[in-house]
């Protein structure tokens, strides 16, 4: 068997680096990637890997794999974070900023245009409303499929399963995620390090704190209607929307779908929009060349017009820029620290529980009008099965379109 020596060329070969590029050329390169970013994170990452790593050698394949593993643990859209990191590798921090802006700009501009057009749709026409209801059923199916996919990769041992289920139960009981998620991270970090007694103790304290808050805080029930449609953009302050986006951006573990519970909670609890409009925004983002998290732009537009759209988008993408720009070379070392890794894994398991509950609440809201619940339930099941069987990057937009057509045909019979 061959054993390479310390001086073997295979071990001493220098890490490849990006070719010389001007700032303008770098921005245009990633703007092109952004304009072609269809098919979700898997397709987007594959595109970056094929052109920049395999064809042009911006870094070695093993280093790219390690970097991708780090980005999957950290919050934020992985493809965008990779773009920032690769841009910084090419031209320093300004290169990272330009690469990140280039990658997100096409999707942001298109979502702004679609948001503007959304308020010019005549929802009073029966067939338009039926089409959007069908699409909303398909969007919920995609969320349910995402819960299964994300959970399969995150809930890999019984402690993580326990953290996820406990977080889901806490969400159903109305406990704030500001308590649930830190507790989830700490409990799993303690359990992973062998201090299971301490983990049980922290979990007990978290339950006691939740009960105390429940007793001392007046109960507020937010009701969000699937058919609520604002007729014009609202006037929520950009500062509020920026903070909402920043919160979601910092808690987006395991993909853009995990931002859904946080943005939905803000949007519906504060009356910015109903669940129907929220699902419409998700549907629009699913057909754009952009990270799915660009649906936040739609929420900002509905809540606060163009300034609100800009503010919430800046907030939700800021962490994706910051992790690469601030830490850069330290990212791999930071996330490989056992305590930090376990803490983030626990938080991610908690987020899976939250998004599962959010999906359940959306299903209940969809099926509540009994007159159309059976039809919408059938569309949801069909879309769920189709999304599981058909793995093409074209699947989401085609399924959404088919669901809209099914809504028109079946709900207008």
TrEMBL record:
It is found in: Cell membrane. Keywords: Cell membrane, Membrane, Transmembrane, Transmembrane helix. It is a multi-pass membrane protein. The chain crosses the membrane at residues 20-43, 97-119, 125-147, 159-191, 197-216, 282-303, 309-328, 340-364, 370-387, 394-411. Its main location: membrane. It holds the Pfam family Chromate_transp. PANTHER family: CHROMATE ION TRANSPORTER (EUROFUNG) (PTHR33567:SF3). Belongs to the chromate ion transporter (CHR) (TC 2.A.51) family. This is Chromate efflux transporter. It comes from Brevundimonas kwangchunensis.
């Amino acid at each position: 068997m061959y054993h390479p020596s310390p001086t073997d060329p295979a071990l001493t070969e220098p890490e490849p680096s990006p070719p010389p590029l001007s700032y303008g050329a770098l921005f245009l390169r990633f703007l092109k990637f952004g304009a072609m970013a269809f098919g979700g994170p898997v397709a987007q990452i594959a595109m970056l890997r094929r052109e920049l790593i395999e064809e042009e050698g911006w870094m070695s394949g093993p280093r790219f794999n390690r970097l991708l593993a780090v980005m999957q643990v950290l919050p934020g859209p992985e493809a965008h974070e990779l773009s920032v990191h690769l841009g910084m590798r090419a031209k320093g921090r300004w290169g990272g900023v330009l690469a990140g802006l280039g990658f997100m700009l096409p999707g942001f501009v298109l979502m702004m245009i679609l948001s503007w057009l959304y308020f010019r749709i005549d929802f009073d026409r029966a067939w338009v409303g039926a089409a959007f209801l069908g699409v909303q059923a398909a969007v919920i199916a995609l969320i349910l499929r995402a819960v299964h996919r994300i959970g399969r990769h995150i809930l890999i041992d019984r402690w993580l399963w326990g953290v996820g289920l406990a977080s889901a139960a806490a969400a159903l009981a109305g406990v704030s995620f500001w308590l649930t998620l830190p507790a989830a991270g700490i409990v799993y970090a303690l359990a992973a390090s062998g201090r299971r007694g301490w983990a049980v103790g922290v979990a007990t304290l978290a339950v006691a704190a939740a009960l105390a808050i429940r007793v001392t805080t007046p109960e507020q029930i937010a009701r969000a209607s699937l058919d609520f449609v604002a007729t014009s953009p609202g006037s929520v302050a950009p500062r509020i929307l920026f903070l909402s986006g920043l919160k979601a951006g910092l808690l987006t573990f395991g993909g853009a779908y995990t931002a859904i519970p946080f943005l939905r909670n803000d949007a519906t609890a504060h009356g910015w929009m109903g669940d129907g409009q929220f699902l419409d925004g998700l549907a629009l983002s699913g057909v754009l060349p952009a990270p799915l998290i660009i649906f936040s732009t739609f929420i900002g537009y509905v809540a606060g017009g163009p300034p609100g759209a800009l503010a919430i988008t800046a907030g939700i993408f800021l962490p994706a820029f910051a992790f690469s720009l601030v830490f850069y070379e330290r990212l791999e070392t930071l996330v490989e620290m056992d305590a930090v890794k376990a803490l983030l894994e626990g938080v991610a398991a908690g987020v899976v529980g939250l998004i599962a509950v959010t999906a359940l609440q959306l299903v209940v809201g969809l099926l509540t009008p009994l007159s159309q619940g059976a039809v919408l339930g059938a569309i949801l099941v069909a879309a769920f099965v189709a999304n599981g069987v058909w793995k093409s990057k074209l699947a989401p937009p085609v399924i959404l379109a088919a669901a809209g057509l099914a809504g028109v045909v079946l709900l207008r019979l």
